[in-house]
Amino acid sequence: MIEDFFTQLTWLQAIGTTFGVVQVLLARKNNIDNYLFGIVAILISLWVLYQSKLYADIILTMLTGGIVHTIIGVEMAPLKELIHPLLYK
Question: Domain tally for the chain?
């Protein structure tokens, strides 16, 4: 049973990585389809992190721009700028 879990994760990770590489190559050519491949790659990576119970990594992925940057197409503020006002109020 546990072997099946890791086999499925390995395939998902390979598929997600492939989508990510294709997204970068399409972005390099300024092809609009890069957004589709980027969204799929990030959603697969979030699913793999969720299945692995790495919840903090999911939050870090979302905070550092992962899915928000891909869907909206806008660069997010660095994490330091987001946390700094909260620490020094």
Answer: 1
